[in-house]
Structures are given as structure tokens and as C-alpha cells.
Write a sequence for this structure.
């Protein structure tokens, strides 16, 4: 199993926190999972940043740097680089996860889901419910009709975190050689390229929660049923790990809503 964490080159603190939390050997617990961080470069090739990155890799030996300037518009290029690296350096991987560095991975739930991810020509993730192209210029994913003349996109998966079957890596890589570039990474790779080479998209319940769990939602019941979720900050990632650790050390039980005692208070008043 190969997990490639897509990270901006300057996200030093986030990578360190990931190594201390869900990517720590103590929490991974097995030696057949390889975790690497795929980073790009800074716009001006900052020498200080580069030297710091080299020191980081000497210490941890888990960085792969590609010659792509880190930006939202270049995520497609980084995902193509991921396919190249996985195909060349880890051809025996049964699954290749692509996850952004703002996600938290809950191994306890993911380990139960992994046996179900056994189709050899699939990508697993969360389907996107709205497939219409955004035409308003202030929208985050605005695309002009010149770039994409059709009203809808092909079916695709959310790009925050998805898993590629090992045998699908080579066909997808081949598809990138003949598919015109499109800057929205998840549409390009899991939509355009996947459909071109007949790689199917598979939805896995409770695999990935694409929104930030709000206050009160990040509880024991959520943790016990969710494999991967997005975090909004370093503090939120650390909190996710703290709560997850408490859940699986039996310090924090899951109490379903139907089992909770009914309060006799009225909006917390007149108790």
C-alpha cells in the first residue's frame, strides 16, 4: 500500500504534525504501508526553503520533489507526477492513495475498508454530486466555454483523497499522455483520463468525509465510522488525532443520539 500525501513545499509544520500523528509508525502499525510526501517548488526557487527541505529529507527520507511550482492550478501536474513515481518506484503496490496534506487518516476504520477495495481497474473515493461546469468568474472552479464548451463534466471523484488500484496506475499514466491538460485535477484524472481507459469509479461508504467536521461533530461516533476526513488547520488536525486516540483507548465512548438521556432543560434554561 502506497500513500502519497500531496503537500506544498513550504508546509513544513503540517508534514511534521502528520509524521507525529496518523503517519507515525506507532499508529500505522505495519511495515507494508509506505507513506511519502510529494512536493513541488516555490515560484522563485527560494534557496533557503530548498535547503530546509533537503535537511527535512535527510532526517525523514520520505520526500519526493517534482519540478512543478506549487499552486492550485498545478495540482493536475503533481498528480501526473504521482503516477510516474508510483509506476517507476512502487510498481507492486496494490493500492495507491492520493491524499492532500489537510486530511486525517483513521487507520482503525480504513483497515476494515481496505479488503473491499479489490477491483484491479478502479479508483475509489467520493463521487461529486454536481457535474455542471461553473461559469461565474468569481467561482473557485470557474471554467470558460472556450476551455470547456460542454455544460457538464464526466463523472469524477473528489480530489481530496482517493485510492487508485495498482493495476490502474499504468493505464491512467498512459491516458495522461494523450488527454489535453485540464487544470482541475480531480476532473482531469478521475474523470477524463479514467473514462478514456475504462477505469471505473467506485464509491465506498464512510471512506472519505470531504468537509471539516464542525464543533460537536468530531466525536467518538464520527471517528468510529469515518476513515478519512478533512481538517481546517494544524490545530484541527491535532485535535482529530487526540480524539481518535481517546476513542480507541476506550476513554471516549460512542453514545448514539437515540441512547442519550433526554434533557429536562429548555434550551439549557430552567433546569
Amino acid at each position: 500500500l502506497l500513500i502519497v500525501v500531496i503537500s506544498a513545499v513550504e508546509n513544513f509544520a503540517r508534514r511534521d504534525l502528520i509524521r507525529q500523528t496518523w503517519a507515525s509508525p506507532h499508529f500505522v502499525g505495519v511495515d507494508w504501508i509506505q507513506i511519502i510526501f510529494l512536493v513541488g517548488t516555490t515560484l522563485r526557487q527560494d534557496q533557503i526553503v530548498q535547503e530546509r527541505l533537503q535537511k527535512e529529507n535527510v532526517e525523514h527520507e520520505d520526500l519526493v520533489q517534482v519540478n512543478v511550482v506549487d499552486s492550485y492550478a498545478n495540482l493536475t501536474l503533481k498528480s501526473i507526477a504521482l503516477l510516474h513515481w508510483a509506476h517507476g518506484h512502487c510498481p507492486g503496490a496494490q493500492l495507491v492513495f492520493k491524499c492532500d496534506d489537510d486530511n486525517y487518516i483513521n487507520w482503525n476504520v480504513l483497515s476494515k475498508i481496505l479488503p473491499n477495495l479489490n477491483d484491479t481497474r478502479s479508483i475509489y473515493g467520493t463521487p461529486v454530486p454536481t457535474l455542471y461546469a461553473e461559469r461565474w468568474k468569481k467561482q473557485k472552479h470557474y471554467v470558460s466555454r472556450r476551455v470547456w464548451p460542454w455544460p457538464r463534466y464526466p463523472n469524477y471523484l473528489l480530489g481530496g483523497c482517493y485510492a487508485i488500484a495498482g493495476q490502474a496506475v499504468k493505464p491512467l499514466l498512459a491516458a495522461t499522455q494523450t488527454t489535453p491538460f485540464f487544470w482541475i485535477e480531480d476532473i482531469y484524472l478521475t474523470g477524463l483520463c479514467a473514462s478514456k481507459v475504462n477505469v471505473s469509479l467506485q464509491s465506498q461508504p464512510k471512506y472519505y468525509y470531504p468537509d471539516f467536521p464542525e464543533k460537536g461533530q468530531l466525536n467518538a461516533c464520527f471517528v468510529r465510522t469515518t476513515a478519512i476526513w478533512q481538517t481546517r488547520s494544524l490545530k484541527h488536525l491535532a485535535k482529530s488525532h487526540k480524539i481518535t486516540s481517546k476513542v480507541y483507548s476506550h476513554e471516549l465512548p460512542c453514545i448514539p443520539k437515540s441512547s442519550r438521556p433526554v434533557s429536562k432543560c429548555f434550551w439549557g434554561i430552567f433546569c
